[in-house]
């Protein structure tokens, strides 16, 4: 019913700001996935490359966790930071300990896990090349 003072209430918001941002991020990610066919890295929207790298890095971490083996007879735990270089095709191009756990055996186990892991390919929208990642591996008895 119309209000007697002629003022209409403001329309209700149908989506929250966070929901709209989520939709925009998903749209950009979809565009980024197909951008490789339309012009390469410069076709990626702002932030899209970072999101693709973060998603790929997450899949790499999952691969490392599956390949990780806690050294037999070890009692201590620790965190090893690895510096990996991964090619677009998922080949390990290089690995080194960026920050030691303080235990040589854990550091070696982390490097061996990286060499043993089946690493995922890069998202199609990423240009060919090798990409650096610094990732932490946590070991606990």
UniProtKB/TrEMBL annotation:
Keyword field contains Membrane: yes
Sequence ranges of Basic and acidic residues compositional bias: 23-40
Ranges for region Disordered: 1-47
Keywords annotated in UniProt: Membrane, Transmembrane, Transmembrane helix
Stored PROSITE patterns: TONB_CTD
Record-annotated TonB C-terminal domain positions: 52-141
Domain of life: Bacteria
Cellular component annotations (GO), alphabetically ordered: membrane
InterPro entries membership: TonB/TolA_C, TonB_C
Biological process, per Gene Ontology: transmembrane transport
Membrane topology: Single-pass membrane protein
Cellular localization per UniProt: Membrane
NCBIfam families associated with the record: tonB_Cterm
Name assigned to this protein: TonB family protein
Species in which this protein is naturally found: Rhodosalinus sediminis
């Amino acid at each position: 019913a119309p209000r007697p003072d002629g003022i209409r209430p403001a329309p209700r918001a149908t989506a929250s700001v966070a929901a709209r941002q989520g939709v925009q991020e998903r749209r950009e990610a979809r565009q980024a996935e197909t951008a490789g066919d339309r012009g390469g890295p410069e076709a990626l929207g702002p932030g899209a490359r970072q999101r693709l790298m973060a998603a790929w890095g997450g899949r790499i971490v999952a691969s490392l966790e599956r390949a990780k083996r806690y050294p037999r007879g070890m009692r201590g735990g620790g965190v090893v930071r690895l510096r990996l270089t991964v090619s677009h095709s998922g080949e390990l191009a290089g690995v080194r300990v960026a920050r030691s756990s303080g235990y040589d055996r854990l550091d070696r186990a982390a490097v061996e896990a990286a060499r043993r892991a089946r690493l995922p390919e890069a998202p199609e929208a990423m240009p060919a090349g090798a990409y650096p990642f610094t990732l932490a591996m946590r070991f606990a008895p």
